[in-house]
Amino acid sequence: MLSEGYSLLYDEASDLGASDLILLVKAESEPMHVFVKAASEAGDDIKKDLERIARDYPGVRIDLDPLPEMEKRKRAAISKDRARYFAPVVGHGGREYERTVLLAFWNGLNHERHLCEVMAEAEPDASLKKFLLDTEKRYDGLYDRVNELLDKEYFKGTSFASAPP
To answer: Would you list the DSSP string of 97-120?
Structure first.
């Protein structure tokens, strides 16, 4: 079960690490650019840490494909829709584009920080538990940063984090 979690964490860190590719597609504001670079660097760091952990701890697997087929298809459909939305020239741009991208980060970071939390609760190895808690804190920091950016630039006067589910 934990290796399924590590595999999910690895896949998401890989995606986060590649997120700076969106900076090549459209022009964006400086605050968004700075945030995306920081998120991408964090994803790269976490991915490298997980690769090291998988080498050092033979019981930790990061190469599993634990998602059910329908979940994989749903995610592929979301990715395809998102690619059309962000496509150069014909896709959306400006503040609408930035808000949508930042909301995607907000959602993804929320998932990852909670994944780290529940994995840490189940992880019996102290050093792996520490890695998960440290990674959770890193995701928490990015989550707080993107939330502040959304509040300040796109949802003035509201607190997005405290909005009801």
So the answer is: HHHHHHHHHHHHHHHHHHHHHHHH
